[in-house]
Amino acid sequence: MFYVEWLRARNALRILAIVLGVLFLVTAIVRLFMPTNLEGNHYIHYEMGASGTHSSTVHLRDGATQTTILDSSGDRVVIVDHGWRGKHITVSGPGVEVDRRANVHIGSVRVKTFPGTNGGEVSVNTDEPIPLAALLVGPGIVGIIIATILGGALGKENRNHLEIAWTKPVSREAMALGMFGVDVVAIVAAMLMAFVMEVAGIALFELPRIEVDATAIAVVLLAVFGVLAFYALCNAATSSLRGGGGMKAVVWLAAIFVPLLSAAALVPILIFKIVGIIFGALALLDPLAYLSTHVSDSGQVASGAVPGVFGYSVLSAPIPERALVLLVLTVLFFALSVLQWRRLEA
What are phi and psi for residue 55, nearest 5 degrees? Predict the structure, then answer.
């Protein structure tokens, strides 16, 4: 009964699997042909053989290898190699110039700088835990792409199969919900595929440590419900149309620019404040506005966050609350889709 929708979902997942497989293969090839630069062994051996440099290597009790390099100027490099668990590198001495702006954290790599009266110190750790929220960015993007492709299922049915759909021995509500169910399973499967491939790609370089805290379940639900709410919004916007590809483009533009225009309320001019309030209210219906990663679970609003409407801001709400609102929006958009589809005539 939902065979056509199942074919659409299957084809989308098949193409995604091919794309992810190619990306993984490219990553594996890069890892295969760049082991020296990535592991830093070339740099260690070069420094150990330089004139005026003293080096020593010891094996620690936990199985790690510690290499210490001391040059004639007093600069010291200490490299603790934990194998697949990454490295911890410390560079210190009078010749080390540091900049606070050099403090970065990308994936499992964290760089910290410590200025001092006699030089500075730079610490590089390649085994930092990766926040689960950071790992869900890629799967979230993949999920939204698949949601856009599969979104508008009822509009596609209107264009090609509406007369046949009304003759099936099932209610219109059950048929619509069945098609939604097929697509929801496919979207969640696509996000899971992207997550597994992402972790596998990182593992080619070193085994990742995923930071899972008390908000982990809420973070996962936020990502999943955000993508599903966007899928449901695409259906609500196209369920009364024949096709709806152009309308999905409008949905994308609105989802991107509505939160941006709501920031006009920050400008101390009356007309801008009015525009900001209007678009701020519309942002409450925008699933993408709830997926900001710049707000902590305690509700601390980052600089430049979208202002709230009637005391509520989608960007300042705690993660569990945002996930709950996205679930409500998903149900609301699905209901609007079914109600519009019921009123169509073949």
Answer: -140, 155
| Amino acid present at 12 | A
Q: How far is CA 33 from CA 29, 37, 39, 46, 127, in A?
A: 6, 9, 12, 20, 22
How far is it, in rounded angstroms, from Cα 225 to Cα 291?
10
How confident is the model at residue 296, as a pLDDT?
Answer: 42
pLDDT surpasses 90 at 18: yes
Examine the pLDDT at 55 and tell me if it is beyond 80: no
Per DSSP, which regions of 14-145 are E strands? 54-59, 65-70, 76-81, 87-93, 104-106, 109-116, 119-125, 130-131
Residue whose pair of structure tokens reads 């589809």 in the numeric block: 341
Q: Which range is most confident: 31-35, 97-101, 306-310? A: 31-35
Residues 6+ apart with CB under 8 A from 72: 52, 53
- CA–centroid distance for 77 within its chain: 35
> Edge-to-edge, what's the strand order for the sheet holding 65-70?
54-59, 65-70, 76-81, 87-93, 119-125, 109-116, 104-106
Rounded CA gap, 160 and 162, in Å? 6
**Does the pLDDT value for residue 22 go beyond 60?**
yes
Domain locations in the chain? Answer: 3-25+131-342, 48-127
Instruction: Tell me what pLDDT residue 126 has.
Output: 78
Is 216:132 a contact under the CB 8 Å cutoff? yes
Q: Is the dihedral of CA 272, 273, 277, 280 positive or negative?
A: positive
The residues facing 79 across adjacent strands are: 67, 89
**Please, which residues bridge with residue 57 across strands?**
67
- The tokens of 265 are what? 């309320």
- Using CA atoms, how far apart are residues 55 and 91, in angstroms rounded to an integer? 14
In tens, the pLDDT along 177-216 reads: 888 999 999 999 999 999 999 999 988 877 788 888 778 8
Which residues lie below 8 Å from residue 30, measured CB to CB, with a gap of 6+?
none
Q: Please report how many Cα atoms fall inside a 13 Å half-sphere around the Cα of residue 70, on the Cβ side.
A: 5
